[in-house]
Structures are given as C-alpha cells and as structure tokens.
C-alpha cells in the first residue's frame, strides 16, 4: 500500500520538483542531455506521493505544472509490451496480483492502477475507480513527444532490450531519453543492443 504522511509529501515535492537534478557543462557525460546547461526539474514517477506514480494521470499533472523531465520505471509484459510500473509485480499499486512478466497487456489494462494509492495511511483511496490504468511507454511517447525522459529499465527474464530500443528508434527519442538501471546485466544488454548508446543522445546511468 502506498501511504505517506503529510510532512513526507511536502519533502517529496520540495526535493523532486524543485532541486531534483542540477545540470551544468561540467557534469559527467552520462548524466545530462546534450546542449542543456540549466537546471532541470524531474518528476519522479510523474509525482509519486502527490499522485499515483507511474500513471498517465501523474505524468499529465507533472507536464501541466511545467516539469522538464518525466522519470519512470519500465517492465515488459508476457506479450512483449513495455509498461510503466515500479515493482516487478502489480500487487503493490493495483487491485491485481502477479508478476508483470506473467501477464499480458490486456490483463494489465483491466487493473486499477490507483487502487492502493493513499496519502493518509489507508484511510481513504481518493483515486480508486477513476479509470486510471497502467500506461505503456508507447502511450507516453505518443502523448508527450516533445518531453525529456529518464527511464529505468528493470532486469527481466523476458528480454526488454530489443523492444525497448525498437520503440525508441520508432519514436526517434534518442536525444530525449536517459536510460538507467540498477542491474549491470540490464545495462549490458541495452548497450549491446544499442552500441552507440554511449555517444551523444543516449545516456546510460548506473546509479540508482
């Protein structure tokens, strides 16, 4: 269950929406977007702790208040679709259960992505039943083609590197995306799939 006290939420807003990342010409090459020399504001999961994280609703709100970068977590479904959710299972945030890799996109789209979201220790669930679904990365690219993205790819049994790279090539998003992962295997697979990822445009960040 996602629940945060009021003070934690204020701290989140301050840290994520105000000082999340400072970008400057002397920063390490794997931490910035080419040509950007001013501070960027990053919305972690679109604003987790303020809205149900990693949902289209959260990303829409974040874009609406003027953030520069949308941060998210990418997993792959049983049928090879890339969806956005932090955990490897749907249990923590939705009304469903099971590994994302064991579910099809159609099954995941039936879930309420805001079902477990609460800001008052589970007393209320203000976004339940409002049709908030688990989004796909494709849907986000199509909705906000001009946004910058910070995408964490997870270590998955069903390889995510090829469909992830194919989707980014399709949407020509190389100069808008920073790719990160806490798993060296996932980073290695991504770089092998896209060897030019260390050059301008793609950035791979191993720090979580």
Can you walk me through this structure?
The protein is α/β, with parallel strands linked by helices and 208 residues long. The chain has helices at 6-18, 56-64, 105-109, 137-143, 161-170, 184-193; strands spanning 42-43, 69-76, 82-84, 148-153, 177-180, 203-205. The protein is built from 6 helices and 6 strands. A hairpin with a 5-residue loop joins strand 2 (69-76) and strand 3. The model is unreliable at 6-31 and 199-208 (pLDDT under 50).
Kindly summarize this structure in a few lines.
By secondary structure, the chain is α/β, with parallel strands linked by helices. The chain has helices spanning 6-18, 56-64, 105-109, 137-143, 161-170, 184-193, and strands spanning 42-43, 69-76, 82-84, 148-153, 177-180, 203-205.
List keywords for this structure.
alpha/beta, disordered C terminus, single chain, TIM Barrel, 6-stranded mixed sheet, 12% strand
Q: Please give the CATH architecture.
A: Alpha-Beta Barrel
- SS-based structural class? alpha/beta
Question: Total strand count, please?
Answer: 6
Most strands sheet: 6 strands, mixed
What is the percentage of strand-forming residues? 5-15%
The outline comes out as: globular
CATH topology (level 3) name: TIM Barrel
Mean model confidence by pLDDT: 81
Number of separate domains: 1
Tally of helical segments: 6
- Return the string of H and E elements: HEHEEHHEHEHE
Uncertain residue segments: 6-31, 199-208
Top-tier CATH class: Alpha Beta
- The CATH superfamily turns out to be Phosphatidylinositol (PI) phosphodiesterase
Q: Distance N terminus to C terminus? A: 22 Å
Rg, please? 17 Å
The proportion of residues forming helix, as a percent range, comes to 25-40%
């Amino acid at each position: 269950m996602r629940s945060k006290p009021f003070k934690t939420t204020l701290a989140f807003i301050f840290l994520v929406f105000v000082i999340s990342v400072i970008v400057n010409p002397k920063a390490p090459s794997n931490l910035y977007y080419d040509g950007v020399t001013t501070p960027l504001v990053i919305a972690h999961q679109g604003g987790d702790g303020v809205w149900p994280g990693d949902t289209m609703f959260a990303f829409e709100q974040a874009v609406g208040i003027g953030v520069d970068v949308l941060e998210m977590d990418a997993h792959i479904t049983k049928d090879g679709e890339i969806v956005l959710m932090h955990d490897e299972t749907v249990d923590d945030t939705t009304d469903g259960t099971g590994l994302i890799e064991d579910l099809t996109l159609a099954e995941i789209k039936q879930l309420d992505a805001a079902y477990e979201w609460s800001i008052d220790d589970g007393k209320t669930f203000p976004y339940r039943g409002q049709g908030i679904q688990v989004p796909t990365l494709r849907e986000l690219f199509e909705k906000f083609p001009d946004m910058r993205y910070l995408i964490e790819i997870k270590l998955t049994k069903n390889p995510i590197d090829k469909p992830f790279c194919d989707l980014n090539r399709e949407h020509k998003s190389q100069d808008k995306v920073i790719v990160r992962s806490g798993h060296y295997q996932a980073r290695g697979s991504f770089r092998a799939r896209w060897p030019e990822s260390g050059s301008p445009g793609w950035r791979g960040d191993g720090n979580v």
